[in-house]
Amino acid sequence: MRLVSIASGSSGNCIYVGSDNSHILVDAGISNKRIEQGLNEIGLKGSELDGIVITHEHSDHTKGLGVLARKYGVPLYGTKETLEEVSKQKYLGEYPRELYHPICPDVDFFIGDLEVKPFSIDHDAANPVAYRIQHDHKSVAVATDMGHYDQYIIDHLQGLDALLLESNHDVNMLQAGPYPYYLKRRILGDHGHLSNENAGRLLCCILHDNLKRILLGHLSKENNYEELAYETVKLEITDGDNPFKASDFSIAVAGRDRMSEIITI
Predict the structure, then answer these.
(1) SS3 47
(2) What is the pTM of this model?
(3) Which of 93, 186, 187, 212 could join 66 in a cystine, given CB atoms 3.0 to 4.6 angstroms apart?
(4) What is the rounded CA–CA span in Å between residue 209 and residue 249?
(5) Contact by Cβ (8 Å): 75, 52
(6) pLDDT tens across 132-177, in order?
(7) Between the CA of residue 226 and those of 6, 73, 178, 193, 246, what are the distances in Å?
(8) Which neighbouring-strand residues pair with 195?
(9) In terms of Cα–Cα distance, which of 154, 151, 126 is closest to 141?
């Protein structure tokens, strides 16, 4: 399997996951041009996509869907409620609604030889999910836009080989920053976003010897920066109640405007 972040941040998200034979995107929240450039960099074309799994309807996760659907007829997977909201987004233009494939949290499905396991997350969207994707006893997950985590989330992130996890904001930067009060409350609330500290604490619950790569993603442009997210998460792991140190794992930050390294497992 391969996992590559084409873009990850508050301004746009698009993650590639694939095997030798099947290729999918988790979200398409950047321009089609950038998506195709990213695919080309890993030796693929848009016409080779087998599907796009959508976490939720916010524009930083959907803005490239219309062009991909029109140009290549790529199937679109999301919860019924998510697809209903996506269908209302005028900026996506016209494309065949027959491409919609409603899915349900905790009901697994296949796209080619990739087994996709959607699970519910708490975010201010219609019915959002994160995704765990498996192939030949290897598994990766993309988990962002979570206001908080609980045992249900922890259980779905056990035994992974690689993970892209939200590390959205630094709490102090957010509280002292220019955002209006209502927006700060939204981000900090149970249906907002995961802070750097909470990302590190969640990782402490799921670390194991065979977790090969960790990408920190969906960083806020205004309330975080890469070095701070990286160092905060590392500190939480090293000081946390677990047998590991941050140096035991390969941890990197997924960039907003650049591709990550190709993670092969």
Answers:
(1) helix
(2) 0.97
(3) 93
(4) 9
(5) yes
(6) 999 999 999 999 999 999 999 999 999 999 999 999 999 999 999 9
(7) 16, 36, 19, 16, 16
(8) 169
(9) 154
